[in-house]
Amino acid sequence: MLDLINVSYDTQIPNNVGLSSDKKVLKALERWHPGYINWWNDLIPQNFQESMVYLRTAVSVDPKGWAKFDYVKMPEYRWGVLLAPQVEDRRIPCGEHAGELAWQEVPGEYRNLMKRLIVIQGDTEPGSVEQQRYLGLTAPSLYDMRNLFQVNVEEGRHLWAMVYLLFKYFGKDGREEADDLLRRSSGSEEAPRMLGAFNEETPDWLSFFMFTYFTDRDGKMQLESLAQSGFDPLSRTCRFMLTEEAHHMFVGETGVGRTIQATCEAMVKAGISDPYDTDKVRSLGVIDLPTIQKKLNLHYTLSLDLFGQEVSTNAANAFNAGIKGRYMETRIQDDHRLTGDTYKVLDIVDGVLVERDVPALTAINMRLRDDYIRDASGGVGRWNKIIEKAGIEFELKLPHQAFNRKIGVFAGKDFDPEGNLVTGDEYDRGLPHWLPTHGDGDFIQSLMKPCYEPGKYASWIAPPKVGIDNKPGDFEYVKLHMA
Amino acid sequence: MTKRIDFQVDPSAYRHWRVEYDGPVANLFMDVDEDGGLFDGYQLKLNSYDLGVDIELADIVQRMRFEHPEVKVVVMRSAKDRVFCAGANIRMLGGAKHAHKVNFCKFTNETRNTFEAAEVDSGQKYIAAIKGACAGGGYELALACNHIMLTDDSSSSVALPEVPLLAVLPGTGGLTRVTDKRKVRRDLADVFCSTEEGVRGKRAQEWKLVDEVIPNSKFDETVDARARDFAASSTKPDVDKGIVLTALDRTFHEDGSVTYSTVEVQADRKGRTASITIHGPEGDPPADIAAFTAEGDQAWMLRAARELDDAILHLRLNEPELGLMVFKTQGDPETLLAHEALLMANRDHWLAGEVLQYWKRVLKRIDVTSRSMVALVEHGSCFAGILAEILWAVDRSYMMEDEFEGDNRPMATVTLSDANFGPMPMANGLTRLQTRFLGDDAALAGAEASKGEALEAEAADEAGLVTMILDDIDWEDEIRIFLEERASFSPDAMTGMEANLRFAGPETMETRIFGRLTAWQNWIFTRPNAVGEAGALQRYGTGQRGEFNMERV
């Protein structure tokens, strides 16, 4: 356990921001740190807190060796404050200040807007840890448990990263916001997390994999656009966070892939060729493919909501101010100001889906969502390869973006997963085939039995192809504390 | 924006509000229909409002008093998740003509005032229960309530972001109520009004922006409990049953004229003049207050107030070029005073009280109407008691003196009553006569001594109750010349001059809202920094910031 009174911030908190000599930030951090540790300790069941977990810790920003692996108790994890190296002569990439030198301090006129973006980003990081707090109890293997905890501690570090920015650049307001990041809590009636998807439960491991694949990918897109920020410290912070985020998406993609693998293998072994023969498939102790499709539908659509309204003033303001760019902003060939440009957004006119040109500045959210959809489709293709290889006729698909939406032009409208506007009656009848039912949830729960023996995996998930840090198959990724 | 804006609305046609009546507590839910804007070109997202939304709200507040006198506490809430109210719709403001903006703000200001008047006058208390974002006009709605409760979910906030976000003012009473009503210290108010994201949680309470901050999990039950507490400790007498406000009997004519049962509006577009003639009651008053109540909204005293109110609002919003309003009355002053006397004698009766208070509001509405206004006291007229107040609400009055050839109507008189000495105060807290005779106690005492006397021209002139008396020889020419001259002046200069001259005497929160705040707002509404092509209001939503001329004026 960290000695809270005598934290040596230069040795115990890996950092490249000169923490030990920055009195202002140190003072704020000393005040905030105990609350953070309490938050963490209250979060995850005690026996996991005491367990030794084989985790990677970010210790520098050297691309060749930024992390090291070792056993550590999670409360003693060294949450570092690391910013990607400063780029010489970096310029603001977009908006009305495009081409000017990037800001090293917060410009007063954009202070509130910038703070708000950082707070929203910061709020998602602990939110997902809260959503996943009990999953350790049903881990399908020690390998998966370790991955879960890796994702958790890194989300914790991302919270640190945002809190550092709040302390360093936003004074008293920033300190209050940092406190509130610990006060809000996922699904809480008292003070819920700011974004809807972070108040949903993550009830089982398939949800966790879907979440890390789809929802963390929204996080990636947001970080990508904040990495384009004209506010250099924010850009550098986000660039480094993206290094870690890649692993989270890996956990998601391979997790879903291994689930599909186990299903396909079991079906082939039992000689079942009809993927819709769900009773038979389920009796093999694996999750049937139609249910996996339903889970995909749910998590994908929840994640699309995170991009906000298709046409958004806030997004336009942030882009024009140079605080938040587009995905791969510097690689886009245009004037990066967009004042005269248009962009196509989907809309509904008289019940018909249409594309409509709107000023490009106001369609920043829509554009990022389009980039996300492209990005998210890659893994789905790879999952389908697994099914194809097993010789089963079934194809997973991303549903149409109008389906099951709570935010934006499609909110509350009855679209089916193909993007057809259907009657209320058709919608009600289709729903059990499109989204997980309580029955599906009960079935998945019935499979969620822990499997804590090194090298062993629950029936519904296949082992990974290679171990973490190239460890052998029976490596003990978590030394469980069984008090 | 050429379609006629109708200020009459039937509760069955509400698109934006819902009221749930629960004995002495009414729960008022704001649930604005995004696609229910009064005009094309904007969507009313996030419970933002336009004039149409406010017309419904004004109707609810009015009906609450007449149709639901059993209600002692009204709880204002949002029916939407995560947003209380985002304020006036910015795109609507951006697209509206200056005159519409100004009249929109005036009407919304009058409606906010009725929240407060409901408690002072009738003991109906409005409380705001805020969950989610409450910004700009949204917080101004809350400010008009007499108790503000905010949930402490670490994201719900109150804010007045107009200055940093739009380069205009929180002009629906916001700036004024923060300091004058909530007594927020002025430097904290300065911080609050220039911080776009506003203030939440404990600090909102410490700064007096809200009365209570409540843990989110206990919010709904605390609000319900507070509403019941207020209702239990209310001094408002119990009333079983209200009366129904039925649709007005009115006809709109091609030429702009409007006919009501007691009010006739005659439009003269060429002369830029609207004549408003009020016809006094014809029969005897109801025998007693029970009979009056039985007449419901058909009782002359209530019917005339509703019709006059509607006529004024219609002219303000729909006939901007009729710059001159000429008020006339016809009827028997004694009969009118008999109807009034029934109410004055029963002022403690709920309905009598409500009708008198309503006349007070209608007269205030006339006071702040930015048109040149004149009253003509002709033969056969009934400028007595409450209707005599019109003589001192308008800018000038002319009275017929002696007999006119070929005119056999009763001689023009002015008669004062108790109604002229207290129950119909102006926004400045004084009666119209006190304001008129500011610093001249003798004149005021003289007027009071004449109560009940039908004063003919010479006496009325002597008492200072009219501007000018004219006989048969001069009347026609003088009046014609005055009207023509008046209609030719710059409307801007007229509005400014009249608004200044009408409100002599002390400042109150109300006069500061209609005077200082509104005047500055209307100035800003004409400045390029807000409404120019590159102004903040026009640029809002495009992502580009407003471009400002940085020169201080």
Q: Strand share of the residues of chain B?
A: 15-25%
Provide the CATH architecture of the largest domain in chain B: Alpha-Beta Complex
Shape of chain A: globular
Largest sheet of chain A: 3 strands, antiparallel
Q: What is the SS-derived class of chain A? A: mainly alpha
Cα radius of gyration of chain B in angstroms: 24 Å
What is the mean pLDDT of chain B?
A: 96
Beta-strand content estimate of chain A:
5-15%
CATH topology label of the largest domain in chain B? 2-enoyl-CoA Hydratase, Chain A, domain 1
Question: Largest interface: which pair?
Answer: A-B, 24 and 17 residues
Strand segment tally of chain B: 23
- Enumerate how many helices of chain A there are, as a single number: 13
Question: What does this molecule look like?
Answer:
- Chain A: Its EC number is 1.14.13.208.
- The complex is a heterodimer of chains A (483) and B (553).
- Chain A contains 13 helices and 5 strands.
- The mean pLDDT of chain A is 93.
- By secondary structure, chain A is mainly alpha-helical.
- By secondary structure, chain B is α/β, with parallel strands linked by helices.
- Chain B folds into 2 domains: 11-233, 2-enoyl-CoA Hydratase, Chain A, domain 1 (Alpha-Beta Complex); 250-494, 2-enoyl-CoA Hydratase, Chain A, domain 1 (Alpha-Beta Complex), CATH 3.90.226.
- In chain B, the strands form 5 sheets. In chain B, strands 13-14-15-16-17-18-20-23 form an 8-stranded mixed sheet, sandwiched between helices. In chain B, strands 1-2-4-7-9-12 form a 6-stranded mixed sheet, with helices on both faces. Chain B has a 4-stranded mixed sheet with strand order 5-8-10-11.
- The model of chain B has no long low-confidence stretch (mean pLDDT 96).
- Chains A and B meet through helix 3 and helix 10 of A and loops of B.
Label this structure with key terms.
heterodimer, A: 483 residues, mainly alpha, three-stranded antiparallel sheet, two-stranded antiparallel ribbon, 13 helices, B: 553 residues, alpha/beta, 2-enoyl-CoA Hydratase, Chain A, domain 1, 2 domains, six-stranded mixed sheet, 22 helices, globular, RNR-like (chain A), oxidoreductase (chain A), Benzoyl_CoA_Oase_BoxB (chain A)
